[in-house]
Amino acid sequence: MSARASAVVALALCVTALGVTTPAEAELFYLIVGGLGGEAAYAEQFDKDTAALAAVARRTTAGNRVTLLNGEAATAEALEMALDSLRTRTKAADSLVVMLVGHGSYDGESYKLNLPGPDIDGAQFAELLGKVPARSQLVVNATSASGAVLETWAAEGRTVITATRSGFERNATRFAQHFAGALAAGSADINKNGAITAQEAFDYASRLVADSFARDGALATEHPQIKGGAPTRFTVARLAGPPPEAAPASPEVVALRAERDRLDTEIEALRGRRDSMASDAYLAELQRLLVQLAEVQGKIDAAQPRPQQ
Amino acid sequence: MTSRSACAAAVLLLAGAAPSYALTIEYALDRADALVACDRMLYRGAQPEAQACYRNLVAGSADTRIKADAARALGDVRSANSFFQAAIKEYPEDAALRTRWGELFVATHSNQQAVQLFEEALEIDATYAPAKLGLAVIAAGQFEEKTREWAQQVIDEAPEQALVAHLLLARAALEDGAIEAGDEALDEALELAEEHDLTPLQIYAFKAAVDLLRGTTASPWTQRALTLNPRYGDAYAIPAHFYVITRRYREAIELLTKAVEIEPDLYAAHIELGINLLRENRLADAQRHLMIAYEGDRFSAPLVNTLRLIDSFDNFVVTEHPARPAPPGSNAAPNPGVIMRLHKDESAVLGLYVKELVDRTIETYSKRYGFTLKQPVIVELYPDHDDFAVRIAGLPGIGLLGVTFGYLVAMDSPTGRADEDFHWGTTLWHEMAHVFTLEATNHLVPRWFSEGISVYEEWSTGPLPGRHIPVPVLAAIREDKFLPIAELDRGFIRPTYEAQVIVSYMQAGLICEYIAGRYGQTALEGMLDGFAAGKDTAEVVTAVLGISPGQFDEGFAAYVETELGPTTAQLEPWQEKQAELGETIEAGDSRLIVAKAAEAIALFPDYVDGGSAYLAKAGAHRDLGETALSTATLLEYRRRGGHDPDALFTLARALTLAGRNDEAIDAYKDLLMVAPLRSGVHLEFGDLLSSAGRPREALLEYQALLAMNPQDLAEAHYRLAKTYVALEDRAKGREHLLYALEIAPHYREAQQLLLEVVR
After folding, report:
1. At what angle are helices B447-461 and B347-369 packed, to 10 degrees?
2. Preferred mutation among B422, B711, B717 to probe A, highest tally of A CBs within 10 A
């Protein structure tokens, strides 16, 4: 039961935060960069990963808020221009997701993202990112040696995910493909709200990375890390289109949503008392609230159908 | 000079040694008279006098070499080592001294240093017999054929000093089951002992072992030894060794217990006793004897490793399933109960499959061999292969997959090895057959027959379809390397070439297959009865099959030629085709890969190990978009026993997509015998079983899914809830729905099912 209990603690935050992830006036932007592949097999895999990430991004937000730099187009200059564009287009209330796929390098002092032409170094990238006003940021650096920037890129309001534990894990990584998979997989959505948070995606992808090495009987050459920000509240992808909450609602639906939120709060409070209650009493009370919640949700769905997943 | 490194190592290894007074018998004819006088007191059991005698020598002898030997006899290995170091400086060209120092290292389990010193002694005097015997003793401890070579050399070159050589040859012969030859070697040793007035204690103990192997348990030789020295523990411990190697652990425990009763500081016997008590699952008793041994011998790697293993048992979960009598009127076999010791991280998942498989083996073997198990079977699975290796032999680094000690089976868990190498289901099937062959014969079954039945059952009733013979074995068949049936045990115990153990396994399996086919399954049962009655292989073959062992060998050779001759004849062309296939795969032309793979398959259709052409062909078909052909190729691969987990998973999914549910279910079942802890398998297999209307089996898969603590716990609980509801267990269904919704309150499907369940 301890695993379930810990999952509940993490998810309580997700449920509470659903409404605040992307407020109506806020917008979500994506910048996806597919760096140099080098060998054909890597180039092919990186292409696949960036395309999958871009598809998720376009499903989650408006297409004009997704910037994709891939292959020969993914130069340092283009990357600088894209970040500069985000500097002018985003406002403080917005959210930004940056995903870096490809090879990185680390010489013991500085990290470099390998791009066609000159590489971009980690400090320069962090500086450009710091100029983007969007206060809620998620940076997923899925490159080799990406662990080198975990500490230096993390900042207030910014969650950083890296594929490796340090700059010294230099093998080509598997993390990007599993992260892309996480954003499209229903099983990554552990609280079943149709949205994948940064934490959910990280947990899912990390597990698959570890499994893949175990299955190969190989020592893992990458150990994904996460740091900073509020990853349990950062919605990085939706399994279907935008949430129904984004659409205008009738007074009846508004009232039902308020009732649902009240029940959510009660359920969360009950879960907080779990250890102090007898198991039967806890489950009985949980059932009472969950049945009410299911009924309310049924009415909301009837009045305002959900998009298909 | 090489001795410098040996000295340095010696200091390191012997630091902190505790005194040990176990009796060591000295046979060197050049041993100093002063030491021999003390030795004689020791040999007659006058330990206090002997110790006083040795102490006097340590304190008063002017010869550092004598001090060293006296200290060693006192069990003070640290002082002995210091004296040896000093003596070497005084007598750098003394071969005897280096040999004696080497023997000290043998006693403290530091064989590498010992070998170095023996070799240095032989550099000084190439004919020095005790140094050669030192090397022979080390080889004997590792069951190496070199024992005989060294021993024979001493007998030829220095017959007067050859007592130990005869003892070693006797031991090797007895270990091979050559009782007469062993006895004759002991007679030679006895003559030399009398001639040189050396104690015959050890020879008497080996004579008792001869009697034991001939079926006489109360040997007069034991009494003769005890008359000479009432506290000579080896009088029992030496015969016990032969019980151990013939897997008669209970009898060995009995003798070893007597050994430590009369010689409480015989630490080697405490170690053996501890290890064998563990084989009987008597943990507390085992630990007690191992701790006694540790107080006196801190250098034994098997001892230290086994104590660590016992400590690690805290990380294992023991589950006990009670005995289940056969239902009245049914033809089901009674089940004696099953105890499983599984690692806590794996127990919840593996326990489900292990128990099911063990039950199936009990049912299968009880009927096939007409024997009912008398007590619960204990099954242990180790995720760390080194722990398993310690469990079975006390030393890590052993290549076996599983071992059976009567009612106790120990084996690697599926996580103990890379999964494509290890079909855990087959290993368990194999080991469980040993439980039957050992117990049905009171452990009198010869090794070859027990292994043969296990291999034959793998092929004929096990979870992996088909006969599976590795390429090195086929090569050995082509080179006519099979042994006569009456000598087959030698291939297991004392192999003379690298692949001989696996060749012997396969030969034994083929022999049992041949017997079952030619003489019927009842002949195998009859042979078990013969072995249980104490007959040897030749007698059993003659009595049960009605022919001589030689005639049997002729018939068997013809069978092997018929069954495998065509394959062995194609071995070289097939290897060439495999090489060509490898080059084609590099080039990446899928159409050509299909063609080359088909050629390789035609030459050796049963080859499903690493680099199997079936996998290349299936992959190429898939790349060409020929899904049906890819699936057909994988089906054929599986039918012949292919068990690469990726291939099985691909096959199971393809069959599911094609709506071929029954075949898909079979493929998933095979996959679970290789990779039960692989993520994704249980969810997909459970879903398939659910959709195929088999909720009870689906339940097992969803339970396994939940036990793996998946990231998506809500989904696992929801699947379980749905299945319980389908099985009309609404209470369980409700419980799991609440758990699912507790994690994910907005989980729509679970919400809807909850409303259905509670309304």
Report:
1. 110
2. B711
